[in-house]
Structure prediction request, 671 residues.
Amino acid sequence: MDGSPAVGSGGKPGPVDNHADDCGCPRTADLDGDSIAAASRRTFLRGAGAVGAGAAAAGLLGATPALAAAGAGRPDEDPYGRTTMTPAPRGTWRPDPENPRFTVVVMPDTQYMFDQDRIHPVPVEASFRYVLDPERRAGGDDENIVFLAHLGDVTNNGLAEEYSAATKVFDMLDRAGASYGVLAGNHDVSADDQRGATPYLDSFGPARARKTPGYHSSSPDGYNTCHIFRAGGRSWMLLSLDWRLSEKGFAWANKVIADNPTLPVIVTTHEIVDSDGEGNASLSEYGRQMWDKLIKDNDQVFLTLNGHFWPPGNTVLKNSAGHDVHLHITNYQDRYYGGAGMIRSYRFDLNRGVIDIATLSPWIRELAAKDELNALAAQEIELTSKVDHFSMVIDFDERFAGFAPVPPRAPRPARRMLVPGTLAYWRFDEGAAAGSDVAGDTKIKDLTGHGNDLVLRTVPGSPAHSLTWTDDHHPDQPGHGALVFAGQGNPVSGAYLQTLDRAPINRETFRHGFTFELFFKVPADWDPNRNGWSSMLSRWGTAAEAGKNGPSATAEEPVLTISLSSSVELQWNAYPLNQTGATTGWSHLLQQDEWWHVAVVNDGRISKLYVNGCEEGRNPTSPAVGLATLNLPFMLGGYEWAGAVSQVFHGTIGDVRIADRALKPGQFMNA
Prediction:
């Protein structure tokens, strides 16, 4: 849309957008064929060399000899006048379908690039080069583009010669095997999707769409298309819907969603929402039909994208299921150089639960790289207003749970966790009923069969329910059970577990390496004064007793501990055989009331701390060989100071495993 009336294949005026009355442009329907080229819009670009460029392009497309001659020589002299239609290399489209970070690129109204004798596709070409060539995106955030969605108004007048130019540019995507969708806007067509044959349909109908990766189907009329692409380890549906859906069109769209009931859906079309000058979007009259007939009752639709109006904006509406639907309008044809081929990137990050949105012109970036910017172009490289550069927070699992719930990970047999080198493995999914106390005579078996069993110890005077069973667990934990420790410090109270006095692991020095790993959760009522500096796993025996007195040593602290600071930071603190002082590793501050996995790994020299399988720190300059021992038991949930328990853990502990070698993250219990 640009303010002039829509035109169908016969050159007749179609629906007029709500900016037409104040555009000041002549109505296309009031002009004869010879006058359209001279009168339709874009006079504000003529100072940038667009006239010569457009005339040269028109000559390539069979325009009159006079027009072709008028542009002779200028494209080579003026960087803004180059019309290349550069082919892209074949087979360059290789997105990673499993990467949780991926990008969907949106291209709004390109009509001013394909407008009679002003045809100048170079900005669109630059955008396609950016999408297809990872080297052009080096150092950016669009490293894994999985789909490109055009939002309609491909051309300005819906004429065959305009599509002839447009298809040559879209051939770049086809040659590279890219996945993309195109839809018709009001400048491409008139009436609804039952209009029959048009130059648009000849160019971007099912015959072309079915060649694109991920193509699923088209409506019988050919104007509506469904793609299903894989990204972030799951399948997604993107609908490219006509500017005006008929009842048949709505029926087709509803059916294709119903036939794929577990797929999240992005709806793209030319018009749904308009926006005010502050970026606040609202449904247009036709957008209300889209909402009522397609969007609100299909919970799978979580995002809609449209062009047509300007300025950009967005809103969030609640659907019939009470879930958020994000509705965005993006269109830049009112800006410098008819939008300069501007694209918008929707950068999905499934790990963070965020979609980051950015808006840029790859063409102007190319000009900047060649030092060919003018003053106006320099302002358009990237748009950073609140409606052009922002983030959407979406808990994808929760949002999609109504139609595609993530199945809980099944428990894994203990035998599968006994990787070579496993010395001890404890899990808590075969105890008494959840919520009941751990009995005083309970013995937790070491599932390796090595005899490193755990027994209960209780601080005298501790209240009831100091240690209880629970079926709560980390979602990636092999055993679906855990223990809830209600310990405290200052004064100390609670119950903990420790290995038998004669357990073989008590004597282990781990000279060739080790891996300690466990699952844990810190409750919301964690008190830094009473619960800080408590330990989840530690070893009896003080540094002083082990003959350790380095400058950083505290003589009365235990020889080994995986603890939590008062700020809920993980601390690994242990005394190697080859050092008088301790080796220490720290994590970031961890959220309470959330499950975590920690692993400490040593390959015989270097110790590394991992949180949720991610390395947090290491000790590369102070090799740590083995671990000091006084042949005393390990404790689960207890912490010693000066030979006595001084703190008992407050929180939940799940599966615990100890190995005598360095395991890789892919071998951890949460892998």
About this structure: The radius of gyration is 33 Å. The domain at 416-667 is CATH 2.60.120.200 (Jelly Rolls). Residues 182 and 563 are 56 Å apart (CA to CA).
